[in-house]
Design brief:
Number of strands: 0
Radius of gyration: 13 Å
Distance between the termini: 39 Å
Largest sheet: none
Order of helices and strands: HHHHHH
Structural class: mainly alpha
Length: about 100
């Protein structure tokens, strides 16, 4: 159902984020990766995606890419005033180092 919604409305950030998370839950790492990348390409201000995608990349051992994503996400969160997300990503970034 989410796939159909994203197909019909590819720019809907919430739906694509939900689909990426569902792919993670189902263990479809390539699809999750693709949806997160597309989400951030279309909606670079969608703060939650930076944290979830960064955690996903860290789990895959892609530490440099995860670190960059967390760093970028911290900036996005700061600009949007989302201090909770900023703090979560700062903690995640510190954990990677």
């Amino acid at each position: 159902m989410l796939e159909k919604f994203v197909e019909d409305k590819p720019g809907d950030a919430f739906a694509r984020y939900g689909l990426a998370l569902e792919c993670l839950k189902l263990g479809d790492d390539p699809a999750a990766d693709g949806h997160f990348r597309k989400l951030l390409e279309i909606n670079p201000g969608y703060t939650a995606a930076y944290f979830q995608f960064g955690q996903f990349l860290a789990r895959l051992g892609k530490i440099d890419e995860a670190s960059k994503l967390f760093s970028d996400g911290i900036i996005v969160a700061q600009k949007s005033g989302d201090m909770h997300a900023r703090d979560e990503m700062q903690a995640a970034l510190s954990h990677l180092r």
